[in-house]
């Protein structure tokens, strides 16, 4: 399959214009969505959309209970799906929760969510990745700028930009507790990252550039062109963001942690192929390529 | 001299109520300030005050030129006043700029600033510390919660809470580029930090607690009681904050760096004594105890 979005293959930085629609709904279906026309336009233009109070207080409470009870279930378990703090046994993330918890399987198939993502992706969908993030207060670290699609394309073999992330906030997101920052409009540009240099070339290079992350000049260009958005909202809010939207987060020294449930929906017409890096695929719990129950 | 605010001397955390006024203006002078009644009340209640557009665009431009030219002057100089990046020669901070630059000496004596700080401190004042901070984009690290007074008291021998910091923004402060976060009202409480434990005690301690920083429970108590404020504003804004106001900042992965000029004014009635830690005083360029030109 032709690589439409090459990255980490060259020593040159390049910016490739998006070659895919943002909203994939079929002709004639453009306005048949549970989202309003304004919401669809905002997603189209910005590459993300915040839906405040999407889940009720009671639902948030139940989800919060379930994520703590899941952490409890995994307490003494060693499994790759569970990622712990480097310096303690505290759980940071649990992957594949839609497979290993009947409760979160139901959440992943929530009709209100599916109505939206079916429309945005213009097809039936499946869950490419799901995880719970337990972000602690005081010690939460920054997460550098990235486009998820760049990673999913290079490392997982996702062919096209036809996936959407759904992040359900299970605690309040303020501007100060390390919230997600997004660059509105960045989804229209694929920032091709530089690849690992042969040793000689690396030594010759005047300017050090990290491998596999967007370069400073491209980030400056994006941020100056589009600015930076920091959507905030109470627990129960849902943030939809397009797979190529550039995002990252600063650290969090406040006492206020942030838990969220994160699910990536991919179009059944965009199933994973061999990774474009040529390397072995990452494990199934990070990127689904075998078990693909279609969610309608 | 009796230690009214003991810290780092015990293995117990404690919260000591403030024993000093917030605004020290003499009786009858309370309303004789260039600040409005509302501004004074806000400073009294919150422990900080943001003054937007305090300096004109032309003044900001000149200050910015001066800070870059000062960095240039120090380019190949090894002196303790100049703090560089751990991994490069880039300058992070230059201390004692009011002594080593006639330009910044004039800024420190700016009548508009002195009118305010003289009133807040109820006396003549001197510059206890001055520095320029060059905070880069992309790699700016977090600065954990602290009360400056706790450090100045323990390490520098500042007897009472009668000092004020003036931070002049030389670039725009947004919510997302690692701005200062403050806990409004925290200046009313002295969070006494735990001291370095004897090795045995440390091993017995169930809960690890870092030495000389506020503990998590006190920080949770403060943040839940008072919330967190993030004053933002364009270059040229001035932030006044009381020496005991709890503050810190998250990291900054955005391309937008933050430069500021930071000056600490202390009351001439609050001159430094021997450090309350019993250790040797820190160097003169961090805490003035010899050269104390009174600024009126």
TrEMBL record, chains A, B:
Catalytic activity: L-ectoine + 2-oxoglutarate + O2 = 5-hydroxyectoine + succinate + CO2
Cofactor: Fe(2+)
Region ranges (Disordered): 1-38
Cited Pfam families: PhyH (PF05721)
UniProtKB keywords: Dioxygenase, Iron, Metal-binding, Oxidoreductase
Annotated signal sequence range: none
Record EC number: 1.14.11.55
Keyword Membrane: no
UniProt cross-references to Gene3D superfamilies, sorted A to Z: q2cbj1_9rhob like domain
Top enzyme category: oxidoreductase
An example molecular function term from Gene Ontology annotations: iron ion binding
Compositional bias (Basic and acidic residues): 1-30
Function recorded in the entry: Involved in the biosynthesis of 5-hydroxyectoine, called compatible solute, which helps organisms to survive extreme osmotic stress by acting as a highly soluble organic osmolyte. Catalyzes the 2-oxoglutarate-dependent selective hydroxylation of L-ectoine to yield (4S,5S)-5-hydroxyectoine.
Family to which the UniProt record says this protein belongs: Belongs to the PhyH family. EctD subfamily.
Protein name in UniProt: Ectoine hydroxylase
């Amino acid at each position: 399959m032709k690589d439409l979005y090459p990255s980490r293959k060259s020593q040159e930085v390049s910016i490739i214009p998006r070659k895919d629609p943002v909203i994939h709904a079929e002709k004639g279906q453009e306005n048949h969505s549970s989202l309003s026309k304004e919401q669809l336009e905002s997603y189209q233009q910005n590459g993300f959309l915040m839906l405040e109070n999407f889940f009720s207080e009671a639902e948030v409470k139940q989800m919060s209970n379930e994520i703590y009870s899941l952490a409890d279930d995994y307490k003494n378990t060693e499994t790759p799906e569970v990622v712990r703090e480097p310096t303690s046994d505290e759980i940071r993330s649990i992957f594949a929760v839609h497979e290993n918890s009947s409760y979160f399987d139901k959440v992943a198939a929530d009709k209100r969510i599916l109505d939206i993502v079916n429309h945005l992706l213009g097809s039936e969908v499946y869950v490419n990745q799901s995880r719970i993030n337990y972000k602690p207060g005081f010690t939460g670290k920054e997460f550098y700028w990235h486009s998820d699609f760049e990673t999913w394309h290079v490392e997982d073999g996702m062919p096209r930009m036809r996936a959407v992330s759904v992040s359900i906030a299970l605690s309040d997101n303020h501007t100060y507790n390390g919230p997600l920052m997004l660059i509105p409009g960045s989804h229209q540009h694929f920032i091709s990252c530089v690849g690992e240099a042969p040793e000689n070339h690396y030594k010759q290079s005047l300017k050090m550039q990290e491998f596999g992350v967007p370069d400073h000049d491209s980030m400056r260009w994006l941020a100056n062109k589009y600015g930076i958005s920091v959507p905030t909202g109470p627990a129960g809010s849902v943030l939809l963001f397009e797979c190529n939207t550039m995002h990252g987060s600063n650290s969090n020294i406040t006492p206020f942690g942030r838990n969220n449930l994160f699910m990536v929906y991919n179009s059944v017409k965009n199933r994973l192929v061999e990774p474009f890096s040529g390397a072995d695929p990452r494990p199934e719990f990070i990127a689904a390529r075998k078990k693909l129950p279609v969610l309608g």
